[in-house]
C-alpha cells in the first residue's frame, strides 16, 4: 500500500540530518533512519543530553516510507565486498549503492508483514522489551499490532517486531465556506452520500481505504475477508462513486484548497499540517470509527542489537517525550500523555485530542490473504470503470 509513500511537506519541524558528537572510531554510535518530520530535532538533542557518556548520534530523515522499506531491502541484499568485480573498486568517485545499515528505521505498520516475510527486520528481544518502562502501559491494541509470527501475521504468541511511536488516521477534510452555504457539517461516513456532494468529493486511490469506509458505514470491518458476505456493498460503492470527482493518493488536497472539490478523504499526516495555513478548511474523524496508521521503530536483520537503540525506543516512550513528539509533529501518541485542549491549535484539536470512544471503533488495516486483497482490487476497479 502507498500510504504516505508521498508527503505534501510537513512544515518546519522536519528533522534535517543531525550528527551529534565527535567521530572517534571507538565512540558508541547510533544510526537512525526516520521518516522526515516524524521526530522533532529537540527530542534528539534531549536524548543526547540524557546519556551518561559521549556518543555519536546520526539521525537521517527520509522523505517516504517506501524509500525506507527499499533501504531495508538493499541492506538485506547488498553484495559483499569480496563479491564485487575487482576492477569496479578502482572507479574514481564511485558512490556506494546503499547507505550504511541503520540501527533503527521508521516503518509504517502496513509494511510490517512484508518486512517480516522478506526477513528484512529482526524481532526485539524479550529481555529488551521487559526493560522498557512503558511497554506494559501501552494499550493492548498496540501490543497486539506488533506481535507477529514469522509470516508477519498477528499472533498473540508471536514475537515483538516493532515499537510504535506515533499514529494518525484517515479523516474527512472539508471546505467550511461551502458547507456553511449547505447549512450542515460532515460528521460521519454516511454524509459522503448526500445529494449536495455529487461530483464534489476526492477519495484516496486505495481499494482498502475506499471499500473500507463503505464497510464501516455498513457496520462492518475494514478487514472484512469475504466481501460477498456484504450484499449491499457493491450498490453503496456505486452510489459513492457518483459523488467522486476524482481519485488520488497524492493530489487530493490541492483541488480542495482551490475550491474545485468541497470534501476529501485523506490521511491525517497530510491533512493536519495544512489546516493552520488554510482557515477555510476543517477536518473531522468519523464518529463510527476510521482506519488507523502507525509509525514504528524496527531493527534491520543485519545489525547487532545495541543498548543505545533500546535506550532510544524507551526514551520515545517517556510520557513527557511522547507528548513532545505528538505536539510538535501534530500526530497522536500510543503512550498516554496529559495533552489538554489548550496545548493544541483549535484547527487540529478534534483530530489530536484523544477520543477513546472513536479510537475503540477504529481499526488498523491488517494484513489480508493475497486472494482477499485481489477481491478488494477487483471490486474497486469494477466500480471505477462504471
Task: Explain what you see.
By secondary structure, this protein is α/β, with parallel strands linked by helices. It has two domains: 11-167 and 293-352, Periplasmic binding protein-like II (D-Maltodextrin-Binding Protein, domain 2); 168-291 and 363-384, D-Maltodextrin-Binding Protein, domain 2. 34% of the residues lie in helices and 18% in strands. The chain is built from 15 helices and 14 strands. Strands 1, 2, 3, 4, 5, 8, 9, 10, 11, 12, 13 and 14 form a twelve-stranded mixed beta sheet that branches. The protein has a two-stranded antiparallel sheet with strand order 6-7. β2, α1 and β3 form a beta-alpha-beta unit. α7 (207-217) packs across α8 (233-243) and α7 (207-217) packs across α15 (370-384). The two termini are 24 Å apart. Residues 1-17, 20-24 and 80-97 have low confidence and may be disordered.
Compressed to H and E, one letter per element, the order equals EEHEHEHEHHEEEHEHHEHEHEEHHHHEH
**What's the main sheet like?**
12 strands, mixed
Cα-based radius of gyration, to the nearest Å: 22 Å
Tell me the CATH architecture of the largest domain. Answer: 3-Layer(aba) Sandwich
Shape: globular
| Number of beta strands | 14
- CATH class annotation of the largest domain: Alpha Beta
The secondary structure category is alpha/beta
Amino acid at each position: 500500500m502507498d500510504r504516505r509513500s508521498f508527503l505534501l511537506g510537513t512544515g518546519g519541524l522536519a528533522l534535517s540530518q543531525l550528527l551529534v558528537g565527535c567521530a572517534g572510531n571507538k565512540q558508541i554510535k547510533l544510526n537512525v533512519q526516520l521518516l522526515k518530520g516524524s521526530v522533532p530535532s529537540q527530542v534528539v538533542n534531549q536524548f543526547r543530553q540524557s546519556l551518561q557518556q559521549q556518543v555519536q548520534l546520526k539521525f537521517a530523515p527520509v522523505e517516504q516510507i517506501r524509500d525506507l522499506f527499499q533501504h531495508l531491502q538493499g541492506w538485506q541484499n547488498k553484495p559483499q565486498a569480496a563479491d564485487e568485480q575487482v576492477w569496479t573498486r578502482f572507479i574514481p568517485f564511485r558512490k556506494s549503492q546503499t547507505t550504511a545499515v541503520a540501527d533503527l528505521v521508521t516503518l509504517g505498520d502496513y509494511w510490517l508483514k512484508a518486512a517480516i516475510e522478506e526477513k528484512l527486520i529482526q524481532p526485539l528481544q524479550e529481555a529488551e522489551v521487559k526493560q522498557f518502562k512503558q511497554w506494559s502501559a501501552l494499550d493492548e491494541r498496540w501490543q497486539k499490532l506488533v506481535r507477529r509470527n514469522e509470516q508477519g501475521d498477528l499472533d498473540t504468541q508471536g514475537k515483538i517486531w516493532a515499537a510504535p511511536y506515533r499514529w494518525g488516521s484517515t479523516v474527512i477534510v472539508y471546505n467550511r465556506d461551502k458547507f456553511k452555504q449547505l447549512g450542515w457539517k460532515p460528521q460521519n461516513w454516511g454524509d459522503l452520500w448526500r445529494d449536495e456532494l455529487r461530483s464534489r468529493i476526492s477519495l484516496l486511490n486505495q481499494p482498502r481505504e475506499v471499500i473500507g469506509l463503505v464497510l464501516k458505514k455498513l457496520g462492518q470491518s475494514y478487514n472484512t475477508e469475504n466481501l460477498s458476505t456484504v450484499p449491499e456493498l457493491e450498490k453503496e460503492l456505486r452510489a459513492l462513486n457518483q459523488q467522486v470527482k476524482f481519485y488520488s493518493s497524492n493530489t487530493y488536497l490541492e483541488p480542495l484548497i482551490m475550491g474545485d472539490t468541497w470534501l476529501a478523504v485523506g490521511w491525517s499526516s497530510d491533512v493536519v499540517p495544512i489546516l493552520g495555513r488554510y482557515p477555510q478548511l476543517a477536518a473531522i474523524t468519523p464518529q463510527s470509527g476510521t482506519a488507523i496508521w502507525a509509525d514504528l521503530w524496527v531493527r534491520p536483520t543485519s545489525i547487532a542489537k545495541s543498548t543505545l537503540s533500546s535506550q532510544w525506543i524507551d526514551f520515545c516512550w517517556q510520557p513527557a517525550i511522547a507528548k513532545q513528539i505528538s505536539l510538535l509533529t501534530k500526530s497522536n501518541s500510543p503512550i498516554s500523555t496529559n495533552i489538554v485542549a489548550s496545548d493544541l491549535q483549535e484547527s487540529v484539536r478534534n483530530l489530536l485530542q484523544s477520543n477513546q470512544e472513536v479510537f475503540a471503533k477504529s481499526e488498523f488495516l491488517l494484513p489480508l490473504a493475497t486472494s482477499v486483497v485481489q477481491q478488494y482490487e477487483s471490486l474497486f476497479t469494477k466500480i471505477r470503470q462504471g
